[in-house]
Design goal:
Layout lengths: L6 E13 L9 E13 L3 E5 L6 H8 L7 E6 L2 E5 L10 E2 L3 H4 L2 E4 L13 H11 L6 H14 L16 H13 L5 E5 L7 H18 L2 E5 L3 H7 L2 E6 L2 E7 H7 L3 H8 L6 H6 L30 H5 L5 E4 L2 E3 L9
Parallel strand pairs: 3-9, 3-10, 7-8, 8-9
Antiparallel strand pairs: 1-2, 1-4, 4-5, 5-6, 10-11, 11-13, 12-13
Helix pairs in contact: 3-4, 3-5, 4-5
Amino acid sequence: MSEQNNTLVEVQHLQQYFPAGGYGKKKRYVQAVDDVSFAIRRGETLGLVGESGCGKTTTGRSLLRLYEPTDGRIIYDGEVIFDSGKLPDSKGRVAVDMLPYRRKMQIVFQDPYASLDPRMTVGDIVGEAIDIHKLAANDQERRERIIHLLELVGLNSEHANRYAHEFSGGQRQRVGIARALAVRPEFIVCEEPVSALDVSIQAQVVNMFEDLQQNLGLTYLFIAHDLSVVKHISTRIGVMYLGKLVELADSFELIGHSVHPYTRSLISAIPVADPKTARASQRIVLQGDVPSPLDPPSGCRFRTRCPYATEQCAAECPEFREVSPGHWAACHNLEMVR
């Protein structure tokens, strides 16, 4: 799916099931992520979108092994950091020590209110990772690095001695970004980093992510449910539905020439500023509700809401295949989609 020597992160057949009661053969699982594969090229931003509960956040956290994956393979910069297909632990999985990779892979959490310790000052929150990885030779160097990080995200030295409750939501998210940058990472999972912020602040934070990427050479997995935000920042966009990746393409290609019926429905919901264009555009409204990940539909998981569904869709899960150069989709009836 991408050139091997330019690939920073690769996920192969990732699966994340969570136990949900029952026992023996009747044991039930929430199938949060099921057979998801993609690669992220060095220096790019891969956007991951979908409605709430589709598994995009779980994908990001499983990639970092904040959640231990159920199955699949994760490769970072050519090194396998998780592989379920090899022995020898008791569960038949090989997993490496993640501490060295924590310096390279970081996350900015969605909720700026819950992700910061209320008992720690901002300086200690940002400096914690510096202490863990022993990145400062003395207290003076530590403080200088903390102040530099705060200034990098639009804060100043005075903020270092304050507590999280003294900040607005946008400022707290900036603290979370400074914390992620503290170890000089190469790759950052942005877990819906603007969804809890006011619209005016969202634009500032997204622009800051772009500036940081350009200045520091970062690679992002940018997770969001708002396609209008994702198309602004992303190089490529992947669309998830009920634990499956249904389409993946370059940002402009996906917005202008999407082929999957679910993606087209999402794109039709993007607000348009021009009234004439908005009236002329046709909104694609999906019928029914999203099925439960406890008991997903057979075959194609989107078939219960798809206007093009056939008997084949109920019988077979569509292959995630390349329909044009760099454009991947999972649908049996692409030729019928208008």
